[in-house]
Each structure stands twice: as structure tokens, then as C-alpha cells.
Specification:
The complex is a heterodimer of chains A (about 290) and B (about 325).
Chain A: H1 2-7, H2 25-43, H3 48-54, H4 56-72, H5 80-110, H6 112-117, H7 123-152, H8 160-188, H9 191-208, H10 223-227, H11 232-243, H12 251-254, H13 256-280
Chain B: E1 6-17, E2 20-31, E3 35-39, H1 46-53, E4 61-66, E5 69-70, H2 75-81, E6 82-85, H3 97-108, H4 112-125, H5 141-152, E7 159-163, H6 171-186, E8 190-195, H7 198-204, E9 207-212, E10 215-220, H8 222-229, E11 232-238, H9 241-251, E12 258-260, E13 265-270, H10 274-284, E14 291-297, H11 301-309
Parallel strand pairs in B: 3-8, 3-9, 6-7, 7-8
Antiparallel strand pairs in B: 1-2, 1-4, 4-5, 9-10, 11-13, 11-14, 12-13
Helix pairs in contact in B: 3-4, 3-5, 5-6, 8-11
The chains are: A mainly alpha (about 290), B alpha/beta (about 325).
């Protein structure tokens, strides 16, 4: 019983390191958020599926769609690379829901979140770190898609205003969909359920959103659905800002940037309060 | 009137999940430095009580105070004096043992250098050195539990809550946890322990609350509880079941015989202790039955459960409410 005797090396309670004075709530919130975000990011390279989610998977999809669809699809007036890449980025914003949902469900299920919540840390930092960590993780994926696209011949407008607008829209979209995902993770509770429902929801929406082919070219019974697909303005606004293309069709396609911002605000107005409320009472799993 | 010496005080504490009454009018006063054990089967409401004390869920009605601070109105203060070790060894699987401890230390407020010193001490104290740089997901269940306990002791809490600390552990790891608990108590920590093991409550706790279907059915020291169920007993174990049945047939006219066919055992109250043992032995001479064992024993907490709830501990072991996030039980990782 070596362990037992080792453990009896008890130190007097006075040996405990004194805790530094508590800083103000704002400082604590920032510090704790940072610690928790760092914890999440640190684990990415250690989880093969998460690593592949943000690296191999986007690379694979970009290559597959670019060369398989690209060889068959001809979009008038624009090269397929310039058509596809902004679309892929717009679509991947929405897929952030799944990553965020899975991470949230995993954390809550393992009791780690409860442990954090039982500590004297600001509670908002626990949920914000979840959102920020996921956004950073998705940004990695998007940066890889964009970088690969650029290397393969994607040519977006590259003035400062375009880039700033793109970055701003991407961040807005990511934050909105991540809140949606965090809520989903808390409601559905298991990573499998999030995966299942997330894909069932996002896959048809993203194929209908005009990511790979133009909405105008769809069969007449399908195009109205696609025109009002909530993901369509995300794809259309990326394309509009990056390439200057103007889509035709529904109001949300002719005003893609406004529509995208509208959807983001709507998602957040619904999901943020629900997620915070759910978080406050959380584990009251009932 | 809750004095300063009372570290945990609950008053009419009640929690409903929908229509389901998880905890029903739970009242408790825990003096500082003592070990209180909530003893009960799965679904008795132990974890729900723990979660209310740890400010993770709010009571439906009633109040709870930890070191004089209300768990709802002063939850942040409560969190700073209390440490929780939950049922499922809540650690980040993809961080190493050491990284987990450093994270906990930093979240408690230590700077980088101080956190490193605190963690080095914990690693030594809990004998974690050997697997300090292994990812937590790849260590054994016992090792994981040690890291988990260490994570709760980054600072010395006034109250340490251990929710089923030894469930799923091998006997050696259980012994380690028990020793740690005893040392903490010597250091003046008040301990709130839940367990399904009668033996554990008996070995560690100063005060035991028997919990059944959200209600405290009995409370007291182990000895008080044993005393309340009454007398010592004479247990006679037959060599086979047929023998046990013959014993029941022969002895039930003279004694109040309680048979336990699973154990091939009959149990007889023995208010006069040794004299009764002698009477039973005498009576056994008339019966041609092979006897494995005959013994006089004090009542166990098993008897207590049977006496207070009307059914043996394991009979109620079915539903698992406890307000946990994930209903599926995660067993030890060994």
C-alpha cells in the first residue's frame, strides 16, 4: 500500500498558498473567460475528430466540390472557383452549429461545466468561453478553406473595405450560429443527438442555399424554397461582397447583406436569452 | 437558531422536478469539523441535495445556508467556501492530470507561479506524480478519482462535498479516498458525504442521515441508529437451504425467527445478548441440522435501512432521478 502511506504526508492547513485579493468583476470575467477559452483550444490537437473537423474536412470538401462539381457545373459570367469559395464560407458559418452543439453537450454531460459552476467564477465566463472557443475553432476552419481557395485560384476583390466587411460578416454569422449551437447542445444533451439533428437540419438547407449551383437554375417548384432558405442570404452575401455578384429572386437574395444581418440578429435574439436561462438553471435536467 | 458553529443548515429544503418530488422537506444542521453522511440508494435525492448546497440548482422551497451564507442569495460567497467533488469525476479528459489541476488553481484565483506551487504540492500529496503528464482520459478510475479529489482541494475549503466518492472504485482506491477524508477532517474541514455504502457511512461519518425517496427517514450517529433498531441478534447460518428451513420450522415456536434464504441464515433478536445466544445454542441441539456458523452481532446499518424504510437497501435501487445532467451512469475508467 505505497499509495496510502504517500497520502499520509499531510501538510498543515496553514501551508496553503494564500489566495490573492479578488479583482473587480470585469477583470475576473475577462481572466476566467480567457482561462476557459484556452482550455478548450488546447485540447483541439488532442482530439483527432475535432482536429480533422477544422483541418482535413474543410480541405477535403473544398477540393471535392471544386474539382468534381467544378468540372460539371458552368455558371455564366463567373469562374466556378469564384462562385464556390464564398459559398463554401457562407455555408460553413451555419455548420458551426454542429461543432458548438457537440462541444457543449460533451462538456455538460461530463460534469466539467458543473465543476466550473461550483467554483467562485463569474458564471457568464463559463458560457462565453464556450462561445468564443467555438468561434475561434470555426475561424481556423474558415481560414484553411480561404487559404486553400486562394492558393488554387480563387480571386475575390481584395480592397480593404471588402476584406473588413467579409471578416465582420463572418464573425457575426459565426457568433450567431455558435449561440444557436450552444443552446442546441444544452437542450439535446448528447453529442450524438446534436450530430444527428444538426446534420439533418443543416445539410438540406446548405445544399438548397445556392452554395454549389445557382438558385435560379433549380426546378421551378424548388427555387422558391431555396430563395427563402435562411442560409441563402449567407451564401449570397459572401458572394456579393467577395465577387460583386448580384443574385436575383426573393427580397433576401437581392438584399443579401441586410438579410444575413437580420437572420443573425433574429437567431441571437432567440437563442441568447434561452441559452442563458437554460444555463442558469442548467443541470436541472428534469 | 443557527449559531456560528453550524456550517451547513437546511430548513424545509425541497426540490421538485415537474411533479416529481426529489427532495422533500429536508432539515439538517451540521456542526463545523464534522462528517455528515447522506446514506441512501440511487434516486433517494442525495445528489439533488448536494447540487442545491453547491449552488448548482435552486431549491423549489425552503432554505440552505453554508457557513451562514444563503445558497441562493449569496451563491458566490457560498462557492468560495465550498468545494464539490461530483459523482462523475468531472475533469477535462483531454488535459493532463497536471493541466487540470493548474486550471482549477487558476480559476480559484491563483496567479501562474502560485498555481504551479499549489499544484506541485497536490501532486505530491495525492501521489499523482507517476501519471501527472498523462491525459486524464487514459488513467485508471482510481487515479482519476485522486486527481478529482485534488482538484477540489486546490484551496482548503471550509466545507467539502463528496458525492459518492468511492462508487465504482476498487478496494485499494477506496481505502486511499477514505484515508484522505480522515486527514481532511483532522485538518478541520467539514465534510458532507453521500454514499450508497452502509459500510462507508459507518466508517467515516459522525452523523448519518438515512434518505429515502427524498425524505430523511432517520438520523443520528451510527450507534444511535443501531440502538434505535434495537437489540443485538443471534444469526445462525445453515449448511444448506433445506437445513435453514428445518431450523425455521423447529425454532419459530420458541423464538422470533427472521429467515434470509439467500444467506441460508436465520436471525433471532437477542435482548439478553449472551444468555440468548446460549438459549439458541441449546435449542439447536434438538435439531439435526448442520450449522456453518452461529454468532451474536450488533445490528448493522443494513438492518437500520430495513427497519426505517421497510425494505432492504438494494430493493429500492431502481430509478435514478437525482437531477443529473446525463442520466446514463458513467462507471470508473479502469
Amino acid at each position: 500500500m505505497t499509495t496510502v502511506s504517500a497520502i499520509t504526508k499531510e501538510r498543515a492547513p496553514s501551508d496553503y498558498e494564500p489566495l490573492p485579493a479578488r479583482p473587480s468583476t470585469v477583470v475576473r470575467f475577462l481572466r476566467e473567460t480567457w482561462l476557459l477559452v484556452a482550455r478548450g483550444l488546447r485540447t483541439i490537437p488532442r482530439v483527432p475528430t475535432r482536429l480533422s473537423d477544422v483541418t482535413i474536412q474543410p480541405i477535403m470538401f473544398t477540393l471535392l466540390f471544386l474539382y468534381i462539381f467544378g468540372s460539371a457545373i458552368h455558371i455564366p459570367g463567373i469562374s466556378y472557383k469564384n462562385f464556390l469559395l464564398p459559398g463554401l464560407i457562407g455555408q460553413s458559418l451555419a455548420f458551426g452549429v454542429i461543432g458548438a452543439g457537440v462541444a457543449t453537450a460533451t462538456d455538460f454531460g461530463s460534469g466539467v461545466i458543473d465543476r466550473f459552476r461550483s467554483l467562485p467564477v463569474t458564471r457568464l465566463s463559463v458560457i462565453w468561453s464556450q462561445v468564443i472557443g467555438q468561434v475561434v475553432e470555426q475561424i481556423l476552419g474558415i481560414a484553411i478553406v480561404a487559404g486553400l481557395g486562394l492558393a488554387l485560384g480563387w480571386r475575390p476583390h481584395h480592397n480593404l473595405a471588402t476584406i473588413a466587411t467579409l471578416v465582420g460578416l463572418i464573425l457575426l454569422g459565426l457568433i450567431a450560429f455558435t449561440w444557436f449551437g450552444v443552446l442546441m447542445g444544452m437542450v439535446l444533451k448528447t453529442p450524438d443527438a446534436v450530430q444527428g439533428i444538426g446534420f439533418a437540419l443543416m445539410l438540406p438547407l446548405s445544399f438548397l442555399a445556392g452554395t454549389f449551383v445557382t438558385i435560379a437554375g433549380l426546378p421551378s417548384w424548388l427555387s422558391p424554397i431555396a430563395e427563402w432558405d435562411p442560409l441563402s442570404p449567407f451564401v449570397a452575401s459572401m458572394r456579393h461582397v467577395a465577387q460583386g455578384t448580384n443574385a436575383t429572386g426573393s427580397w433576401q437574395l437581392t438584399h443579401p447583406v441586410v438579410a444575413m444581418c437580420g437572420w443573425c440578429v433574429l437567431i441571437m435574439v432567440i437563442c441568447v436569452p434561452l441559452a442563458l436561462r437554460r444555463f442558469a438553471t442548467t443541470a436541472a435536467a428534469s | 437558531m443557527p449559531s456560528e458553529d453550524l456550517v451547513v443548515v437546511t430548513n424545509g429544503l425541497t426540490k421538485l422536478f415537474g411533479d416529481f418530488v426529489a427532495v422533500n422537506d429536508f432539515n439538517l444542521e451540521v456542526p463545523g469539523g464534522s462528517v455528515v453522511s447522506l446514506l441512501g440508494p440511487n434516486g433517494a435525492g442525495k445528489t439533488t441535495i448536494v447540487r442545491m448546497l453547491a449552488t448548482l440548482i435552486k431549491p423549489t422551497s425552503g432554505t440552505a445556508r453554508v457557513c451562514g451564507h444563503d445558497v441562493v442569495k449569496e451563491s458566490d460567497t457560498v462557492r468560495s467556501v465550498l468545494s464539490l467533488t461530483g459523482q462523475f469525476a468531472a475533469l477535462e479528459d483531454n488535459l493532463t492530470a497536471r493541466e487540470n489541476l493548474v486550471l482549477m488553481a487558476r480559476l480559484r484565483g491563483y496567479g501562474r507561479a502560485a498555481a504551479d506551487r499549489v499544484v506541485e504540492n497536490l501532486i505530491e500529496r495525492f501521489d499523482i506524480g507517476e501519471f501527472r503528464d498523462k491525459l486524464v482520459k487514459s488513467v485508471s478510475g482510481g487515479q482519476r478519482r485522486r486527481v478529482d479529489l485534488a482538484a477540489s482541494l486546490v484551496v482548503q475549503p471550509k466545507v467539502l462535498i463528496l458525492d459518492e466518492p468511492t462508487t465504482g472504485l476498487d478496494p485499494r482506491s477506496r481505502q486511499v479516498v477514505w484515508n484522505t477524508i480522515r486527514e481532511l477532517v483532522e485538518a478541520g474541514v467539514t465534510l458532507f458525504l453521500t454514499t450508497q455504502y452502509l459500510e462507508e457511512a459507518d466508517a467515516l461519518a459522525d452523523y448519518i442521515v438515512l434518505l429515502d425517496h427524498g425524505r430523511a427517514t432517520a438520523a443520528g450517529t451510527a450507534n444511535e441508529l443501531k440502538a434505535r433498531i434495537g437489540d443485538q441478534r443471534v444469526d445462525v447460518i445453515a449448511a444448506d437451504l433445506a437445513g435453514m428451513e428445518r431450523l425455521v420450522a423447529h425454532l419459530s415456536s420458541r423464538f422470533d425467527v427472521a429467515p434470509s434464504p439467500d444467506l441460508r441464515m436465520i436471525s433471532i433478536p437477542a435482548p439478553n445478548a449472551v444468555a440468548d445466544l446460549a438459549r439458541v445454542s441449546e435449542a439447536l441441539k434438538d435439531v439435526e441440522v448442520e450449522i456453518d456458523e452461529i454468532a451474536l452481532r450488533r445490528p448493522t446499518l443494513d438492518d437500520a435501512f430495513l427497519a426505517f424504510t421497510g425494505q432492504p437497501v438494494n430493493a429500492t435501487n431502481a430509478n435514478n432521478d437525482t437531477g443529473l445532467w446525463a442520466p446514463d451512469l458513467e462507471e470508473s475508467h479502469s
